[in-house]
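FW: tagging you since you asked about this chain on Friday. Here's the raw sequence from the shared folder, copied in full. Didn't touch anything.
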Amino acid sequence: MLEDNSSQKDSKRPCSIKDYGKELVGDRIKVWWPLDEKFYEGVVSSFDPVERKHKVVYDDGEAEKLRLHKERWEMLEDNSTQKDHGLDFQGRAVSSAT
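HL: got it, structure written out here
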């Protein structure tokens, strides 16, 4: 599935899947919900390295586990503890062609 990362080296996307790990825990993000056609804001509360899923707790109290590398999401600028990730956090779904 995502075993051959060689094609991703030349992609426009600056981050690899491993960049979306525990480093995001505690950060505020917004996740695109295509059926609602809007973003919902929340906090990344945990990361499961085995399933490679982040738990996002939304501002309305709802929570879900997501593979952020397959979701459309953006980092919110109001993160109180801005971390120096050295990465561009404009999350976009990975194309199935790559």
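FW: The CA atoms of residues 6 and 31 lie 28 Å apart.
HL: agreed, and DSSP finds no helices and six strands in the chain.
FW: great, closing this out.
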